[in-house]
């Protein structure tokens, strides 16, 4: 079984992050697999909705710390290319030609916040928790910021990026980071309600509207991609980040 599962039923695709043993934290393999899946299903003319979720208890715990520790010990060019892959993976999700719904439960941390940020509709369990946790580890939410700032106000982004605080689903809704909050037992039902609403609309009009919204996205392009990739690459290689990741891994082992 791969690190990402794809289940297509009729006009609806379910993308399921599949590393539950590490809270669906991503590594390079998962990013490549997720990006390839998005690019493949984007070619389907029958596709009308995509749902992304996490296997097991959590949505996505961000980057796998063992992988990031190993990457931080690699040379700059490897870290830079890896950071660009992360950007391109988020972009492949954002550029899906049909609505993307995030079905969120459990923990959403670090890079997992980027997946939420690029989603068109975010349905969250009332038990879910969120954090731009990078600063806790000596890292920077560089690539994530390029996408999170499309969902958050600038002032709120500053607060959450700088504090790394953990916040609950109701607070996430109050700042428009998620759209709907429901009891965890009602999560599937609420997602299905939105799927049915989208399927009741004219498919070509929905695709054109999704494409229309890119006009209002604002300038990103290769400049932001290159700058944020450089920041992530150099920060990941720093002593503070390497020490911070190692400290966290040691606490988990105890």
In short:
The chain has helices at 28-41, 65-72, 76-94, 112-118, 142-148, 154-163, 169-174, 187-199, 203-212, 221-236, 239-253; strands at 4-9, 12-17, 49-54, 100-104, 107-109, 121-125, 129-131, 167-168, 180-182. With 254 residues, it is α/β, with parallel strands linked by helices.
The percent range for strand residues is: 15-25%
Strand order of the largest sheet: 1-2-3-4-6-9
- Provide the domain count: 1
* Structural class label: alpha/beta
The CATH topology: 2-enoyl-CoA Hydratase, Chain A, domain 1
CATH superfamily: 2-enoyl-CoA Hydratase, Chain A, domain 1
Per CATH, which architecture? Answer: Alpha-Beta Complex
Sheet with most strands: 6 strands, mixed
Helix run count: 11
Radius of gyration: 17 Å
The counted number of beta strands is 9
Overall mean confidence score, pLDDT: 93
Return residue spans where pLDDT drops below 50 for at least 5 consecutive residues: none
State the distance separating the first and last CA atoms.
30 Å
Order of helices and strands: EEHEHHEEHEEHHEHEHHHH
| CATH class category name | Alpha Beta
Q: Percent range for helical residues? A: 40-55%
Looking at the structure, what is the overall shape?
globular
